[in-house]
Structure prediction request, 1109 residues.
Amino acid sequence: MNLNLKIWRQKNSQDKGQFMEFHAKDISEDMSFLEMMDVVNEQLIKDGKEPVEFDHDCREGICGACSMVINGNPHGPDKATTTCQLHMRRFKDGDSIVIEPFRAKAFPVIRDLVVDRSAFDRIIEAGGFISASTGNAQDANCLPIAKDHADRAFSAATCIGCGACVAACKNASASLFVSAKIAHLGLLPQGQAERERRALRMVAAMDESGFGGCTNTGACSAACPKEIGQENIAMMNRDFMRSSAKNRD
Amino acid sequence: MNFWKSTIGQKQLVGLAGLALAGFVLTHMLGNLLILVGPRAYNEYSHALVSNPLIYAAEVGLLVFFLGHVIVAMTLQKRNWKSREVKYAVSASGDKATSPAKKSLWAQGMIILIFVVLHLITMKYGEYYTVNYGQGEIRDLHRLVVDVFHQPGYVIWYVICLVLLGIHLSHGVASSFQTLGFNHPKYTPKIKLGSCLFAAVVTAGFVVQPIYVYFLM
Amino acid sequence: MASHEKLKSNAPSGPIEDRWQKHQFDMKLVNPANKRKHTVIVVGTGLAGASAAASLAELGYHVKSFCISDSPRRAHSIAAQGGINAAKNYQNDGDSVYRLFYDTVKGGDFRSRESNVYRLAQISPAIIDHCVALGVPFAREYGGMLDNRSFGGAQVSRTFYARGQTGQQLLLGAYSAMMRQVDKKSVEMFPRREMLDLVTVDGKARGITVRNLITGEIESHAADAVLLCTGGYGNVYFLSTNAMNSNATAAWRCHKKGAFFANPCFTQIHPTCIPRSGSYQSKLTLMSESLRNDGRVWVPKNKGDRRPPNEIPESERDYYLERIYPSFGNLVPRDVASRQAKFRVDEQRGVGPTGEAVYLDFSDAIKRLGEDQVSEKYGNLFQMYEKITGENPYKVPMRIYPAVHYTMGGLWVDYNLQSTIPGLHVLGEANFSDHGANRLGASALMQGLADGYFIIPYTLGNYLGSNKIEKITEDHEAFKASREEAKKRLDQFFSIQGKKTVDDFHKELGAIMWHYVGMSRNAEGLKKAIEEIGKLRKEFWEDLKIPGEANYKNSEIEKAGRVADFLELGELMARDALERQESCGGHFREEYQTPENEALRKDEEFSHVAAWEFSGKDHDLKWSRFEEPLDFEYVKLTQRSYK
Prediction:
């Protein structure tokens, strides 16, 4: 199939950026979206032009590196899918595809479709952990955890930190990302000791990074490749409210 | 972390105030329904309300909730606008699209705000007709309402705003529960349904009045 | 036999159960107040790197951590699916430290160091304890206890798992522990940095040269020791299950600076990957081999049977693993399962559009357990398969084919995980240590975390405590020289201005490697490979085309450096394979096989680690091969049998 691509090109974070048009020829429907991009880039290089920069790594839908907003949808039209797992059979010959970077003030563009998501690391740094130094642990089975709790914690923990939630939210809010970590650790008995401090510090780090607030539209969960749910955000709200009330500072 | 400055804390204030306001619109709507009973019931009810000394406290409370809801929401909205400097060229579609109703809560709010101001000017501070049912002169609010609801332009504006209020409530009420931290696989779908029903009842209850007045009186 | 004074394993002697404990006691300690004064560089943030950075920072060292991705959480350990082994014996099925040790040595086809492997098995239970303490949400039973499953190559259930995303959950645990130290300012994090060179002063590893991938700047970082946790080199084959950015440059630069490279030809081909579909294919996707617990592998009995799988009757199907290996069946180790699939394809009994695949069929499991239970176990894998191939594995058998997955070879390290360059320690897949010639399923995660959480914190202290390490800064001559060298190399790439892209070369190299240095090898092919790689390398330096400039984010220049190194490493792999005139584990030489096509080891001649020293200069590639003999005091060398 042949496609018309409109891809965002931007030299660096200061550059204004603009769309440029490309033609992708002889694309197989078994290709992944990123393989289609590879083909376009190889052609660009051979034509003496600079290829389109985009983040990608595992191409198995788990590392969270790939991003891109495809025709307005973070990671493209399919639910529970990352861009690397989106396949071209989803498109038709002659389709026009608009490809933009994840856009948010907290995710400045580095080049073309590559954005800086280090704000997420700063949020985790603020409290997305359980303080257990190596060597402290008791036997793993000394702490029975109900299967239901373990499963729910796991579901929240599947977050790959891609930032699609921020990209999808009209407010560029990071609530789903932050709450997934708060819920993962807060649902486990190991995470209780730091639960209050975690909520306070992570929310503070989130707000400081320039993300918007949550208005419960649910766009984040719809775009989330791991289908992380809104119940996590409720849990974050609850933990934050309770911790703020109990906080002695 | 300052609760009052955090996006979550502020949002929770908006939600709490919103729930209180939702309670207010429900009682307001129920009171208004007396128009279907007759002028006397309507006027005596409104008189009873305004002559109760607690009305001042209630009005202050209502004003606080209202201003709190509006001002804090506007503060958050300003922040939200700033959080994405370059907009997308294309908006989300299909499974990943968000319903316009949920996306435009703020715009609904602004129109409702204008409506409320105009509504107060028209009704509370409007023409002061009087009537006497034998216990002294009281305000004939019924007459004012009937006058106003015979203007087709006003009726259309009123109905549009009340439908917007309904849309605002249908998302807003359920959303407040989420914001205040309540989400449960069993109850949340019911809350969402309840929120829609609540919005539908409130809207229907309000809208029925101008229609009744315009077409049947 | 050529031995080398640098190849001293430093493994303790005495009863194997006590060796690690004795060694721990014998090692020097660093006083807590002094730890703060030591800076340690950790390159890579996968399981080994993140766990090492976290543990060392917890002890009080100042750690500088580097990764090529935008976030340390994206390291490719994240893609491990199946699980992590530990000798907990929670299932009461007869597991023990000794059995895990035994299975690992045997599974590695007797080409690993006994002392190392025993220590790994000994440490394994503590890894699970620690990961649980960090909040890793392992699968549990209703009673709240941890669940286990059995995994390729083992007859006990000792594998802990978190649905199909164990690697992700373990990595996020290690990453979170490291981020806690970033918050405490004990770890300094440098993302989007690529290591281009190791800096040595007085023969000791004292720092690294890195390229900032956003600004293109060449930076120097000095330290008292360098830990390399940069993963394996499977991407030599272009198509592998490794991530696109996984590369061997850091390890290769160290090799060229004097670190010996051990057993480069030991690569693991994973049996359950999604077959490739066309020339544009950029990578292969692995599906956890836990699928083999319930799936049955088969091909048609008749050559060239092109019927759709559901139309082939039971009587015309060959469940070849169950037929050949009745006791292990579909759960034979990876190398055996992979090779058998290749044999079937070579017999023209392969399936699918390319004929390069075999079936993995779940219809019996669905009948036995019901679709719900199968989906509970493998739902996400089935979903992934359907996304990639467009076929529903609940209805149609999966098509699978082996793909390069893991490299057992790597930089040579002693018992302390120190390479032949003092101060350069190598952890995780980047070293050669514990898996011999073949790695058992669910053991990579175990090794990465054992190295990072529980070994390096002790052995690094020993190095720092027993060596006098002068203070130096990045202004030292050696750093300056290294920076200039790195810049020169970058300029060289840009100056070629040829016609072919980096990927063109990488694909050609991959084809040579897969063809001649892949699942089965022979002397003639290996010689051919060496010749062809040499030609390709020459062409690379004459006809490469790199667009743009070096002073901003430019993926092509990143890839160019990596492929330039793969073009050298590929040759060493072929040379090693050629010299190792036996078959063992993942290394199958067609000349050395039993009448039943099983690998034929030659213990008399090859019961050793082959460690290669780089003795050339720059583009002039020369190596010397040395041997570290392997002594087996506990495990009796036998022909592996899974029948």
